[in-house]
Amino acid sequence: MGKRVLPPLSALRAFEAAARHMSFVRAAEELNVTPSAVSHQVKLLETWLEARLFHRGARPSKLTDRGQTYFRSVERAFDLLASATSETRTGAARSSLTVATMDSFASNWLVPRLHRFRSMHPTLDIRITLDDRMVDFVKDAVDIAIRYGRGRWPGAEAELLFDEEVFPVCCPSLMTGAHPLGQLADLRFHTLLHDSARIGWARWLKEAALDDVIDASKGPVFGRSYLAIQAAGNCEGVALASGPLVSDAIARGQLIRPFDTKVVAEDAYFLVYRAQTPIPAKVASFRKWLLDERSCR
How much is the mean pLDDT over the chain? Predict the structure, then answer.
């Protein structure tokens, strides 16, 4: 690794405090220096960067566009540094991380991958709780959650994990036999498996221009996604499934995707955690691992 090119850390610290408080006076109080000292350090950083970070003379203090962009990166770096420092000072004592998620996502995507996170963090015990509702991070003692929705939860940070793409899946044997699934219209010969928690067959058949050909109301209804997926794997019919929930089964050849037609839902899977600064080290570690796993799928 080459030599890192970094500005003076004292100047970065002054800038981060001033930008976070939007006040040179409050930054000075936090750093136990004078406001003029904070201003001097910020000017030093601007000279080093050759960029204006604050609008001069603005009351209250106001960042320039470049200043706002730089502050977001500096703030994340300081959060990680503070969390790592706290974690190092506490030593290698065991701790726990409580993750709240939905049962189908846990069983079909999260748990099969969790061993990789545990091998990276052997002193961190993972606790998985199952709940479809949005948790109260403080009251429910939850550190991080994976939720299905629109990504707007008060008091929480939400990052997109997966879009919801729904498509038919079935066992491989339905591709042969008396009525093989060779074209979309062949669905009329097979049982439709319904998942009450996801986009229904009525909408998918309309997207596929088959709503006048196939009765979307026929077939058993399952209250959980993993039950409909399990039924499809047992060759009981064709289910509509969300991509992340069946990616492993498709890769193993247990399920197949007979048609490319899909419907993209308004809702999606989000990684959600309490809005706080700094982010606890264990939450930051799980977040990074989860986003890395998403990129590898």
Answer: 88
- Architecture of the domain whose range is 9-89: Orthogonal Bundle (1.10)
User: What is the tens place of the pLDDT at every residue in 83-93?
Assistant: 777 666 655 55
Whole-Å CA distances, 178 to 181, 189, 239: 10, 9, 19
The answer on pLDDT for 75 being more than 60 is yes
Domain boundaries, the chain: 9-89, 95-161+268-296, 164-265
Q: Please count the other Cβ atoms lying within 10 Å of the Cβ belonging to residue 220.
A: 13
DSSP assigned state of 57 = T
Region of poorest pLDDT, from 137-141, 163-167, 232-236: 137-141
The second-level CATH assignment, the architecture, of 164-265 is: 3-Layer(aba) Sandwich (3.40)
The amino acid at residue 189 is: F
Structural contact between residues 257 and 250, judged by C-beta atoms closer than 8 angstroms: yes
